[in-house]
Amino acid sequence: MKIGRLPVVDRTNGWSAILSERSPNAPLKGDIAADWIVLGAGYAGLAAARRLAENCPDQTIGLIDAGSAGENASGRNSGFAIDLPHNVGSSLDELEGSHRFMRLARSAIDQLGEIVSENKIACDWSADGRYHTAVSERGVKEVLEPYAKELEALGEPFEWMDKAQVKERIGSDHFTAAVFTPGGALMNPAALTRGLADALPDNVTLYENSPVVEANFENAVHLTTGEGTLRAPKMILAANGYSEQFGFFKNRFLHLVAHGSLTRPLSDAEQEAYGVSAPWGLTPANAFAGITMRYTNDRRILIRQGLDYCPSQVFTAEEQRRVKQRHKALFDQRFPMLPQVEIEHTWSGIVCLSQNSAPGFGQLASNIWSAVCQNAVGVTKGTFGGTLAADMATGRDNPLIEDMLSLGEPSSLPPRPFLDIGVRARFMWELWSNRHEA
Length: 438
Ligand SMILES: Cc1cc2nc3c(=O)[nH]c(=O)nc-3n(C[C@H](O)[C@H](O)[C@H](O)COP(=O)(O)OP(=O)(O)OC[C@H]3O[C@@H](n4cnc5c(N)ncnc54)[C@H](O)[C@@H]3O)c2cc1C
Hints:
By secondary structure, this protein is α/β, with parallel strands linked by helices.
């Protein structure tokens, strides 16, 4: 089959722009045979390739990606490794589901933390916790208070913070209250993704800048790029929202585009005016109307705001110009003490969701497994999904596979254009009904 749609490759990602240059691995050339193929080198593919290599030390793994490490969604996200579910619920089933998710997420965070420290990956990996914030009293009542109760029911530690306490830690008086949870991790996601790619075991060969334009799954897996072919008896598909192009998960995935910006670093005088020196990360009570923000070790502020429906999986430079202006206005509103601080980088990235938030995980054919559709929590979900897909494919006994399978399968979506109308209407409604959280 011909691959109709390839990932957009651009060089706008701020997280990688602030790092030094990296030389990517050579693209695929000629006719190469391996024991395994992993398609896609985001968190899911990197984890799958690493685990296959550990499980099958005498076999070879070809990991292939259209772009270079750190430029994909995995390298351009907000850099939160999330360990808690967004919505918990209060029934026993829901609580058990949350515990399963936390087991999976924490296994991924431990795994990433170990790889980072063993390989000395300089990605600012830190356990600074996360502030979940509400702007309005209504947001406090409708989101933060129930969230605090859910955390209590789960037995998870948290700290309730009023406006003054949030102002002291975050340096902005835009927020009415926050729930601080100490788990998870923060990092520069491009540095982490590059580091994971550069620290792969010796029996993995990573082919970068190698878009697969044709795939054949009869008898064995046969992938074709502009310059070569990669063949193997078995494959793990880790192409996230592009998996549909390979004939799987048709009509199951929603494609969104999310936008991020990074300011330039604050000067000493600006940091003094700002009044905060410790890095922090903050997620909003409402993902549509609110803003994800971070203060980084190198004194930059991240603004991640805007989530648009994007069935074409393509974003334009014009869109990014508009986003940059919007992000600057939002920054000025929250940090009026920093009027001279400019936005240095603005970028966009594609996010893949399923309607029921289930992952695209498991066995797709006798010789193909998948770890796709991370529902915007790919640092942890991609990592545990990729690891467990490799364990499943190689028959390694791992009790977490059962936890993973309990997350269900992506439900099917209504046909277009009904889907487009429904999603756009829902987004408008979310934005309008949560405008008090902007
Ligand atoms: C702005 C933004 C902020 C976000 N914030 C967070 C956050 O803070 N925390 C969090 O956990 N998640 C966050 N996310 C979501 C997270 O980035 C994704 O869930 C995660 O990166 C998905 O990982 P993945 O490995 O499944 O897919 P990807 O990183 O998308 O990797 C899939 C790979 O498949 C490759 N591919 C596709 N088609 C082909 C082809 N034909 N040939 C070769 N290669 C192909 C692509 O090049 C790509 O590298 C955010 C996303 C965005 C865009």
